[in-house]
Amino acid sequence: QDAEVVRTRDPQRLAQCDVVVDVGGEYDPERHRYDHHQRSFTQSMRSLRPDKPWTTKLSSAGLVYCHFGSQILAALLGQPEDGPVVTALYDELYENFVEEIDAIDNGIAQAEGEPRYALTTTLSARVHHLNPRWNDPHQDTEVG
What we know:
three-stranded mixed β-sheet; 5 helices; globular; mainly alpha
């Protein structure tokens, strides 16, 4: 609720953060580090929650959803975290929203072969347009 959001890739700054998402090069839920940008990273919803069927490699958004989605939904709905309503909504939200983000962020094609059309209005595409390019010497994320 009163958290400060810091956008940086500076390792010294990241080390001071309580939670780090999508940067830092490590996945360690015990330390609240949720990055998927390591060659060795292969986690999916199924590998972290064997009761779930999805095998799409998780993005950082998927990691956060995997670890906190049920808890957040339960709090918002006033329902038990392990109850049928939260479970059904968690599964529907993952399958129909978050999984697409995971796939796009990890470069997983929507179809085999040449795509028939371009997806340019996805949530991931809109966020991408707000970020500096990876090789831009000016990594100021606050610039318009």
